[in-house]
């Protein structure tokens, strides 16, 4: 037998910058033109973002090609939307010299980022998140993906943005439900990494609910710092990055089982409570679940599984979790507020099926 | 404004192995089980490959999950096929611990490789190419992709295989047309990198047409060596790798314009002649086009654009080339047999539109 080894060369380290400033949206387009003069800009957004005035603020007097995702929200986070975007790029003769500008919430960023990852084997993308969830989480870290007809994020890629621009003033146009749900990823960051940051939520809950721009700026920075420190160490989720999935295993399943009636952050809130109950059952918790539940309740998100959700279906979705091995996922659990349990070097650990099933029953 | 830099860490160098041996197909499954004991194997193939007996030879008494692409060939190299494969993986509860085993020609490899690249943000794939074109070209180098309804390879990713297994004996079941068309990528390798290898084609054309396994083994090795030496230096086609596209700019356009009635290798043969004519017009050639045309004719592939192909449509497709900038691609051209023209450090160079249009007219 003849053997021939093909080398895959080292890829050098790189970086991208997150810019955070209230009221900066109107200045970003000029910056994009200056930073990427040779790239053809293609904006991906949705009707809600346009209606809130953010598209007009971003582009000003410029008239770039714009794709508006319709309908806005999770229902469009599907491979069909990515296909439609890419065919639109092709019809307008966009090439590899494309810069996709993702303006909107988490679904816009996930869809646009994935389209960038697979259009002509990859083009550049900048993220301009306009929602609490996108600013706290999805715009940073390079995870992109869309759903299939069967499960969440069945299609996806790791594709780092060229830059992220955060203007917390865009959060003022969100409705209360979207706004509050998106705060939960920040609470999750506090739970996995920083007990002082958790106390910040406890102390500032009124200012947060009143959308105080200074407090929101502090939250945006803290979220990006925590997320960046994790994804820098493990960009493709071999191990440590999995701590960002705290509350997400049950959260994703609840979100899917609700037919996306529940928002992502609302589902993660339920997932955080589920994780806390698992921790109590496994003897890891020390009375902290009450504090966590209280802050989630104050932020106005659900902390129990809605009665309409079928438990059997929920279990089936958990089995299909994208991180499942042998049809059962591992779980990220806390040792304490601000500290994730690490067992034999692993940040996601085994939890027996019957224990999870019991907790799901209790959580209705 | 607050700025926060997110580091993207270095990715270490790696490698994968190409194994070449006539008659080895029956031993590969055992090797996969030994090398990847913890991965769930999912075979992607097509009805032609199964009918030729290669699927049975590969799996023997094992019964892995198999997805058979239907219909076989370019018509299925579409994003819809990738979606169908991924939904099949999901229905069978495959997770990130999946090994996709691509058994077949170039389209099977491209489809299966792309499905691996985007299923749950990427799973492992091994390539077992069974055609001349796949053994010469597409199974090595990590380019994956599928077509949209508008153009070729609109969707794609760079995704390296874990290993490539080449059994030249599988070539014995190909029909003459497929067999000959697939040889053209090897001729292209000779043209861009190795004049002695080009002479090897001239000397051994009868043995090649008679499918002499020793000669085919030599060709397989030479093709992999040339391709590997290029992709190692430039895995993501920033510059040097573009030399592998010799003959492909017009070739791809002719292939698309023929509605895929022409095979990839047949189209590339026409593209090689087009490139040669461009070289003559630009004063680069020294009477070598006759030699090139002769070997292509002996290998039984077309060297002129079929009359049915609409020239206007052809030009439009060239404008949409995935490497086009400002709606016009650059061209890879030869300085001599075995040597690509490099201009100001660039391996793909500008050619005026009217010159290309003139040559396309002459080439009918």
Molecular structure report:
2 copies of one chain form a homodimer. The termini of chain A are far apart. By secondary structure, chain A is α/β, with parallel strands linked by helices. A 6-stranded parallel beta sheet of chain A has the order 2-9-6-5-3-4. A two-stranded antiparallel sheet of chain A has the order 7-8. Chain A is globular, with a radius of gyration of 20 Å. The longest helix of chain A is centred in the middle third of the chain and has 21 residues, at 213-233. In chain A, 46% of the residues lie in helices and 15% in strands. The model of chain A has no long low-confidence stretch (mean pLDDT 94). The first copy, chain A, has helices spanning 25-35, 47-51, 54-59, 79-91, 106-118, 132-138, 176-193, 195-209, 213-233, 248-257, 264-281, 289-298, 311-319, 353-362, and strands at 2-8, 14-20, 40-46, 65-69, 98-104, 124-129, 143-146, 155-158, 163-166, 334-336, 339-340. Chain A has 2 domains: 17-173, Rossmann fold, CATH 3.40.50.1970; 176-362, Dehydroquinate synthase-like, alpha domain (Up-down Bundle). In chain A, α7 runs parallel beside α11, α10 (248-257) packs across α11 (264-281) and α11 packs across α14. At the A-B interface, β1, β2, α4, β8 and α9 of A face β1, β2, α4, β8 and α10 of B.
């Amino acid at each position: 037998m003849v053997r021939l080894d093909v080398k895959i060369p080292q890829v050098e380290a790189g970086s991208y910058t997150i810019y955070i400033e209230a009221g900066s949206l109107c200045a970003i387009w000029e910056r994009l033109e200056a930073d990427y003069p040779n790239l053809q800009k293609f904006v991906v957004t949705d009707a809600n973002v346009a209606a809130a005035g953010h598209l007009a603020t971003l582009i000003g007097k410029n008239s770039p090609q714009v794709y508006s995702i319709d309908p806005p929200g999770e229902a469009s986070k599907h491979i069909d939307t990515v296909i439609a975007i890419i065919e639109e790029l092709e019809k307008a003769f966009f090439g590899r010299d494309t810069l996709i500008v993702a303006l909107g919430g988490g679904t816009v960023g996930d869809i646009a980022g994935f389209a960038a990852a697979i259009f002509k084997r990859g083009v550049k993308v900048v993220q301009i998140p306009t929602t609490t969830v996108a600013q706290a989480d999805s715009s940073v870290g390079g995870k992109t993906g869309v759903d299939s007809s069967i499960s969440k994020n069945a299609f996806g890629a790791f594709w780092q943005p060229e830059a992220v621009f955060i203007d917390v003033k865009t959060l003022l146009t969100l409705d209360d439900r979207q706004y509050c749900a998106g705060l939960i990823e920040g609470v999750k960051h506090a739970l996995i990494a920083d007990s002082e940051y958790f106390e910040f939520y406890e102390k500032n809950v009124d200012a947060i609910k009143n959308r105080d721009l200074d407090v929101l700026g502090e939250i945006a920075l803290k979220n990006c710092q925590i997320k960046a420190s994790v994804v820098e160490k493990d960009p493709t989720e071999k191990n440590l990055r999995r701590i960002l999935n705290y509350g997400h295993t049950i959260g994703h399943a609840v979100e899917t089982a609700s037919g996306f009636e529940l928002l992502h952050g609302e589902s993660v809130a339920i997932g955080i409570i589920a994780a806390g109950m698992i921790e109590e059952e496994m003897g890891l918790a020390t009375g902290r679940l009450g504090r966590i539940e209280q802050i989630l309740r104050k932020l106005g998100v659900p902390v129990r599984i809605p009665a309409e959700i079928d438990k059997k279906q929920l279990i089936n979705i958990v089995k299909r979790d994208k991180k499942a091995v042998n049809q059962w996922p591992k779980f990220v659990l806390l040792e304490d507020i601000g500290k994730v349990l690490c067992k034999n070097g692993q940040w996601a650990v085994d939890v027996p099926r019957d224990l999870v099933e019991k907790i799901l029953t209790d959580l209705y």
